[in-house]
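hiii, so i know i said id send this last week but things got crazy w the move. better late than never?? heres the sequnce for the chain we talked about at the cafe, plus the structure i predicted for it. fair warning i was half asleep when i ran it
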Amino acid sequence: MLSKLGAEARRYAGSFVVDGFFNGASRIARLHPRARPERHAVEVLPDLPYVEGSSAREHLLDVWRPAPGAAPRGDTRRGGPPWPIVFYVHGGGFRILSKDTHWVMALGFARRGFVAFNVSYRLAPRHRFPTPLEDVCAAFGWVVKNAARFGGDPSRVVLAGESAGANLVTSLALALAYERPEPFAKLAWDTGVVPRAVVPACGVFQVSDLARLKRRKPKISSFIADRLAEVERAYLGPGPWPCSLDLADPVVTLERGEHPTRPLSPYFLPVGTKDPLLPDTRRLGEALRALGVEATERYYPGELHAFHAFVMRDVARRCWADTFAFLDRHVPARDEA
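okay and structure toks below
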């Protein structure tokens, strides 16, 4: 028992170290002159609470938007407000990171002419499933209610995230399309929003039984397999759970083939071919197409997990360009909406 507790303590201590590293790297990166929002005709409204009465830093979001009076770079057709919305949810294995580590994602969308709402949420293992998803649904409800005062158009919404965030926005998309019994899912459903597109990059779309990835591809290293096991332990724990795992395992839910009440949106699914989570992207694309939903996977040869976050690399820029090309087809400009 003591050795087991010691192993758990070492794992969680390791998470804090990794979280500290990425937070430090993010703060340093923001000091670079090219990271300044004004350089990109973007302004930031930070640390807005989305849960009334909560003082938790996890219950904050940032708004990144084109600066008033300035044409966004790269997409002048979007013009002035109201702008389409990107609701962005960060990754980190449900255990680490925040909106503050993912500012570059919000900047990328804002400079393209979107209002990006970059969301934090409570983290595992202190806050296990479904708490992070509860927070995401609460944040989405707040965004829909308040979007107009930030120049956002709730009739043109994109859901986006990577890794764990990809799981959370895919589950949010299901809560918007299927009427479900969970109170947090009902909160999302009651917004009445049908997103124009969903962009879950390099996602973990089934959190339960992550050992399946090692069984499927024995060449996955023991180190990676252990990290995947940590994600499952932290987010799901041993159970029992207060609700079904349908919205922890959205690909499994879609594979049942039940047709939604509201339309499921087109999906763009970028992933590297060396990403251990690659099979989940393939499964999600197949499950969506079986339901008649447009799903476009885009595979980047030799790339690892979350490669697109390293925006200085050519392949990351190509991924961003592919993403924007997809969104340009599905998220109309104001005069086309």
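btw The domain at 36-331 is CATH 3.40.50.1820 (Rossmann fold). thought thatd interest u
miss u guys!!
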